[in-house]
Specification:
Order of helices and strands: EEEHEHEHEEEHEEH
Low-confidence stretches: none
Radius of gyration: 17 Å
Number of strands: 10
Structural class: alpha/beta
Helix content: 10-25%
């Protein structure tokens, strides 16, 4: 039977859920350097075969069975571009660590129970404002993480989409990376533990 393995791509590494230990464990590649405002995994392309080999071995250390049965449920930063999304999917599939992947943003993973909400997060590049409805991204806006106005973002959150104008739409502050202090007064705080608990229970069928 296929195993659905939760994976989180953070600002600095890749976290893979170890079901037997009931915790996330970090995969990092020695010797790979990062650059400001560029997601760390871009550097994997310089050593693609080596990176994929070590990733597969890491997955096998957590899930000793046949990797051909694995399905990776990948949660990516909210500002992941379309091209980056393709690279991420291709990287994992071609690593031999799985037979398939499914991908959603962090904002989409915050709540499956609430039909419509606003998500605010901060990646290594941007502050990201998203309006999620029925698990789909309806609207999104980016702000440079080194130059943003909290008041403006608060105002934009109320008119990000015509559906939420003049409505009391729930706002979630994704503090997974512990970098959202400026936004704590805007909505409900999603702590790293709360976020990881949500992702640990994720299943490909639920994505």
């Amino acid at each position: 039977m296929a195993k659905s393995i939760p994976v989180i791509i953070t600002n600095t590494n890749i976290l893979i859920y170890d079901k037997s230990a009931e915790e996330f464990k970090a995969f990092t590649l020695p010797g790979v350097s990062s650059q400001p405002n560029i997601p760390f995994y871009h550097s994997f392309a310089k050593k693609i075969a080596e990176s994929q080999h070590y990733f597969k071995e890491f997955v096998k250390s957590l899930y000793p069975g046949k990797t051909s049965k694995n399905i990776l449920a990948i949660v990516v930063p909210d500002d992941t571009s379309a091209l980056e999304s393709i690279f991420i999917n291709e990287f994992f599939i071609n690593s031999g660590a799985c037979k398939a992947v499914a991908q959603i943003t962090m904002g989409q993973a915050i709540s499956k129970q609430i039909p419509a909400y606003i998500s605010i997060s901060k990646s290594s590049r941007n502050v990201v404002l998203q309006y999620i409805k029925s698990n789909e991204i309806q609207a999104c806006r980016y702000y440079d993480c080194n130059d943003y106005d909290v008041q403006r973002i608060m105002e934009d959150a109320q008119r990000l989409h015509i559906d939420i104008e003049y409505k009391d739409t729930p706002i979630f502050i994704n503090n997974f990376n512990l970098n959202m202090n400026d936004f704590f007064e805007m909505g409900e705080i999603i702590t790293p533990k709360l976020f990881m608990d949500k992702i640990a229970a994720i299943d490909v069928e639920k994505i």
